[in-house]
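Continuing the series of single-chain predictions for the mutant panel. This is the parent chain; the variants come on the following pages.
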Amino acid sequence: MEKINKNKKSIFLFGIVVILTTIFFVGQNFYALSAEPEYNFDEEIFEEYDTEIDARKEKIDQIKEEIEQYNQQIAQKQSEGVTLKNQLAILDNEITKIKLDIKKTQIEIEKLSLEIKRVERQIEQAQNQIDEQKDYLAEYIRITYQNDQRSYLEVLLMNNDFSEFFDQIEYLFQIQNDLQNTLNNVQELQSLLEGSKTEMEGKKLENESLFEELTNQQNDLDERAGAKESILIKTKSSEAEFKNLVRKLQAEQNQINAEISTLERQIREELAKREAFERFKSFGPAKFIWPTPGQYITAYFHDPDYPYRYIFEHPAIDIRAGQGTSIRAAESGYVARAKDAGMGYSYIMIVHNDGFSTVYGHVSKIYVSEDVYVNQGEIIGLSGGAPGTPGAGNLTSGPHLHFEVRLNGIPVNPLEYLP
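Parent structure:
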């Protein structure tokens, strides 16, 4: 029995020796691989990008300060009396401010382009390192497989001192840790790569938005310049002519506003007496959509920068729309007015449920008649607004749609009711 136990112990020790032999052999082959240095990005390349990006940030901040100075000058002039000289000074400051806005946007586009290139280089380096780490792991797996094919006897014959095997146990754990670290590195780099791609896609979308903003700013600049030229032509640089023009335009706007308010009240009273009023009520609660495809606003409700604010408080939003753009009914309703004023101010007014009405101004062509019902989204006319064109009127400096929302006859901010 004692002899059998000794044999079992010998077999057990022999098994340990065989296992440790295999581990040692694999560990020796893996040593060079585990010594691979951890990956770091080429910081010199990114420092160059960061230097250029920071320089543009600094320039943008400088321009922002200049813009703020012009904003203060404009506010100062707006607080002073209404004179031709004052209004021209306001327009001059606004034109310069928009030029600075354009310059700032151009530099922001340059900065974004650099940031995109930086991210792309980061993605490239991360992808290269992922490929290297994959090769690294593949080599380890290959070596392990090769050694698995050796017989225990072959492994034993390659080594002279078995006592060394027991000293390799701690080293075995180190190898396992190195392998785990390598796997972690690959996973971290893959995660970084995915994050960098997402960041780059976001920056590219932002870049596209900036290009669109730049185009709109250039159009704003043209309109401000057009407004200045219009004032100079109509007044012949005379303060007396300017005062006469202001009185005339104020009277014209008061008449239009009174006409809209009175007509709406009359129409609602008349509709309530008709059998057809049931159809009007069937439209349901008022819920508006944008009347034009584009949603870029050139002048806001009660906009302090509205170029004709010295004549009247802007009761609408002006939506940029090319000459001849289709106008849709923002909500179903009854056409109360479809006024074709020739070369004057043409507009359409639609009465809706819940005390709402909408007004569409600077209409170059009218497609609907008065005393008819229209459905939401139906094309009711074409936009205008280009100076000297049908329906534009006097108070315009470029193509757009003047869009009003009224509640119980009083103008309210359309943006509070649009999606």
